[in-house]
Amino acid sequence: MKFDRDTSREIIKQKNFEPNPRRLAAARRALKRERDKLPLFADQIAQKQPTPEERIAFYDQAILKMIQHMRQFDAYQWRKGRKMLKDLPVKEQKIFLHYWNNIWKGPRKGNYLCDLIRHWEGSIGRDLTCRELQC
C-alpha cells in the first residue's frame, strides 16, 4: 500500500531550538506588546511574565508536543484505515488496493484512506468493477 512520508522529522531537524539574538529580540518585543496592551498594569504584568528565554523554551516545547500529537493521530488513522480495509471482502480489498495504489491521485494519508473506504463502502465500490479498474 502506498503512502506519503511524514515530514515532521525534517521540520524538527531544520528547526533551530537555540535562543539566538533574533529569537530573543522577537520574544522581548512580544512581551513588551503584552505589557503595552494594559499600560496601567504594565509593572504587574511584567512581574508575571516569563523571561524571553523561558518564552522561547515554552514555545519550542509546545511545537514538539504538537508534532508528537499529530504523529500519534496519523498513526491512529492508519491503524483504523487498515482495519477498515481488512473488514472489506477479499475481492473488494484487491480492487480497492489497486484503486489506492494506481488510480487515486490524492494524498496518501491515513485520514484519506479512512474517508475513501467509507465512500467505497457507500457507492464508489459498487459502481466500479475489477475490469473497469484494469486489475
Describe the structure.
The protein is mainly α and 135 residues long. It has one domain. 76% of the residues lie in helices and 0% in strands. It contains seven helices and no strands. The protein is elongated, with a radius of gyration of 24 Å.
How would you summarize the topology of this molecule?
Layout: H1 8-14, H2 21-37, H3 42-48, H4 52-87, H5 90-103, H6 110-127, H7 130-133
Short descriptors:
single chain; 135 residues; mainly alpha
Structural class: mainly alpha
Q: What percent of the residues sit in helical stretches (DSSP H or I)? A: over 70%
Largest sheet: none
State mean pLDDT (0 to 100 scale): 86
Low-confidence stretches: none
Listing every helix as H and every strand as E from the N terminus to the C terminus, the arrangement reads HHHHHHH
What's the shape? elongated
Q: Kindly give the count of domains.
A: 1
User: How many distinct beta strands?
Assistant: 0
Q: Which strand-content bin applies to the residues?
A: under 5%
- How widely separated are the two ends? 15 Å
Q: Helix tally?
A: 7
| Quaternary structure annotation | single chain
- Radius of gyration over all CA atoms, rounded: 24 Å
